Amino acid sequence: MKFGLLYGAQLPRPWTQDSEHRLFREMLEEIELADRLGFDHVWCPEHHFLEEYSHMSAPEVFLGAVSQRTSRIRIGHAVALMPPGFNPTARVAERIATLDLLSDGRVDFGTGESTTPTELGGFGVERSVKRDQWAEAVDAVARMFVEEPFAGCEGKYVSAPIRNVLPKPRQKPHPPMWMACGNRDAIRIAATKGLGALNFSFFGPAETKKWVDAYYSGIESADCVPAGFAVNAQIAATIPMFCHEDETTAVERAVDGVQFFNFGLGFYAGFGTAAPGRTRLWEEFQRDRDKHGMGRSSFGKPGMPLGNPARGAVGTPRQIRDFLRLHEEAGLDQAIFLVQGGGTRHEHICESLELFANEVMPEFKERDETAERLKAARLRPAIDAAMARRERTDGRPRLHHPRPEPKLTPQLTSASALALALALALALALAQAEGERGTAMADTPEEELRILDPQTVAQELRKHGPPRQITMNGTTAWLVSRYEDVRDCLGHPGMSPAAAYAASQGQTTPVSGLFEDTLPGTNPPQHTRLRRLLAKAFTTRRVESLRPRVQEITDTLLDRIAVDGRADLVTALAIPLPMQVICELLGVPIADRTEFHQWADLMLMPPLDPDTAARSQDAAAKLWTYMEDLAEARRQAPEDDLISDLMSAHEDDRLSHREVVATARMMLIAGYELTGSFISNAVFSLLSQPDQMELLRKDPELAGRGLEELLRHAGPGILVVRFANEDVEIGSVPIRAATRCSWTWTPRTPTRHTSPTASGWT
Fold this sequence. Notes:
The chain is of the alpha/beta class. It has 27 helices and 17 strands. Strands 1-2-3-4-7-8-9-11 form an eight-stranded parallel barrel, surrounded by eight helices. The longest helix has 34 residues, at 361-394.
């Protein structure tokens, strides 16, 4: 559980000329202290005309000062009043973004609508429509943070033309967004909009659990359609807090301030009648507190466990610790402490904060990191589904920025580092490849070969030396296995990729057709031209830009495994990791990824029977059509993804629409199945060699060298088919024109590696 502080700038009469100045200076000093002590948040509401109860009418200005006097505490605007009568929506976006920049990305953005007649009437906001106004403004402000320019909106209450709303916030896509919640209906609304829930009512642990359960039920439901561009799954509640070694002293110092807070809220929201400039709230509180159940006796008898919501966490460190554990067990993410209330003295507040930080906070801090990681892993499927629903209702694909959650430990585990390196391996190889010719994906292997361990089979074949004749599909072919012969075969001008040869003969098959108009499936000069243009898009910068998102995907998948305790490596990591990375690289919207994944699986299925072959071809056709549509969308409105880069790559000419789509499909084929197989093989290899596994665990810096060695030792068998365009000679063996040349394996070659059958990076 995290801990925040609520500052509403309460200032009971009588006032002096210096009262407000002194109050604001003391609040800043207290927040500076809280920052040093390790409190997580400071929250400031926006209130207007509420004499004595709150003089915090410009929280963005006050929080701007906080941002310059603190370094780590998060800065919560709780809340900005969103109905346009209070604040024009664009002004809210501008102020929050500016504050986020000033604070180096520490802002939490709370939203609300106000409840007091004094404020609503003062700005001409009708109570009956304030929730609808809030909803329109929240939707618009989230878009203003992200869109460049803001595309405009035309609502019943919020309308704005196309403008570039500046500045943009430092946090991407925007600061975490929250909603003020005063009842359980509001909690459900916050959840269904993917907003954090800020509860400013006082509840005991039992009631807190009901609110928490209702909130997370909404987050995980099909009704959750985020208002923003990220889900902020957090629930926070306000709790009075005052800490002292002596319970009686704690109560004596806190009771009037806490009860004055409750009295003032009730006065302005319900039972009171405000008289501008003449209201004497403190006097009425002293006179009528008992009548409203806010006398000192309502705090309960000393020596008893805390549990009275009105008293909250006012007591000794032991009492407070026990009380907060109950809220922690109820699932509360953050306790926001009311510490500045009524006439509570500044020095007493500082003493209380220091004692709490030293005696109570540490054990909760220790548990919070693990709890947050497990929660993030549990909620990730629901959050992904919610973001997919947002895209479907929004009607257009969006740029997905790195999400702020989950907040994971800074140490990179060896497994996480290795998986990250594996996922990036293919793209890095494409970006930095050398040589004129690439390798191609092979046709399906002959059933009779029964290759369960291609490396062992390759070693046996290499013993036989030069190419040897085999029968494939009833025709004669040549199998090439030695490194030197494979190199000659791949580079010989008389040898052609299967796709290029089939196309030249008018004999395109479903398999060879997958590689038409791609680097692995073409000959010079088309191959040379494609290579030159693709080099403009396949850059190290493009690959490196993916690194934070790949890290996040990898950690999330590993966290799910940690939660479950055990998992099938293939289905839990090896397959979903490369698929998600490829979708990120290509810019496939989240809403389409499930269907995209299904098409890819069907397309890559071996055609073992006519029905499977038909399903595979149908999936390939659907995938091609989808990518054509995606490429066209990127041509009209480029985004920050590879397909947009491919569409714009040019020197003296450009890639055709078909070449872009073919290259994107080739990336899917090459990066999905091969990378998944590699991850599985690599983990198996490490488990088989515990000494090497231990080295990597002790020194994650070895991951780079380890990756190269594992690619050699545990890489999937690379099966390549070439056709002879003319009579050629490979390894002193004559091969006739029109002959299918080879299945080839090359990873462990004795002439190239001193230890072809063992991995190691010591």
